[in-house]
Amino acid sequence: MMKNQSLPKEDVAKRVEKHNGATPYSLLWYNCEHFVTDCRYRSAASLQTEKFCECLKSIIRDQCRVTVTGLLGIVSILCFGMAPSTTLPTILIPLTVQMAG
Q1: What are the domain boundaries of the chain?
Q2: How far is the C-alpha of 56 from the C-alpha of 10, rounded, in Å?
Q3: What is the Rg, in whole angstroms, of the alpha carbon atoms belonging to the chain?
Q4: What's the CA gap between 87 and 61, in Å, rounded?
Q5: Which residues pair with 30 in a beta bridge?
Q6: Is residue 21 helix, strand or coil?
Q7: Predicted confidence band at 83 (pLDDT cuts at 50, 70, 90)?
Q8: Which residues lie below 8 Å from residue 15, measured CB to CB, with a gap of 6+?
Q9: Spatial CA neighbour of 89 closest among 100, 99, 76
Q10: What is the C-alpha separation between 69 and 75, in angstroms, rounded?
Q11: What would the pLDDT profile of 29-58 be if each residue is shown by its tens digit?
Q12: What keywords were assigned to this record (predicted)?
């Protein structure tokens, strides 16, 4: 996980005692995994937090894609009138995009 080499156990224990309570807890920015990697490798990192943020970004991108597709469908209905050839894609394409995401 970490590129740096782990510190010796004695140094890790000293860092734990020194840093314990020094930084306020934050679920995303400084949680227990951040604390441990900071004490052990001198670099605070959390793989779980990184994965969560990537997942959240993916969900937001997918929602934007669905919204844009829906708006394009509405514009096509307004431009070409209410017909099965415009109405069905307006409903089905955003639904399919959302289910695929």
Answers
A1: 9-45, 57-100
A2: 38
A3: 24
A4: 24
A5: 26
A6: coil
A7: confident
A8: 7, 38, 39, 40
A9: 76
A10: 10
A11: 889 999 999 999 999 999 998 998 888 788
A12: Membrane, Transmembrane, Transmembrane helix
d(CA 4, CA 14): 18
What confidence tens digit (pLDDT) does each residue in 15-31 have?
999 988 888 888 888 89
Q: How far is CA 95 from CA 25, 28, 70, 89, in A?
A: 40, 32, 9, 9
Task: Confirm if 73 and 89 have CB atoms less than 8 A apart.
Answer: yes
Active-site amino acid positions: 32
In whole angstroms, give the CA distance from residue 27 to residue 98. 29
pTM for the whole thing? 0.55
Query: From residue 80, how far is each of 69, 72, 74, 84, 89 by CA, in Å?
Result: 16, 12, 10, 11, 13
**Continuous H helices in 1-101:** 9-19, 32-41, 47-80, 84-100
Residue that the structure tokens 């394409």 belong to? 93
For residue 66, the one-letter residue type is V
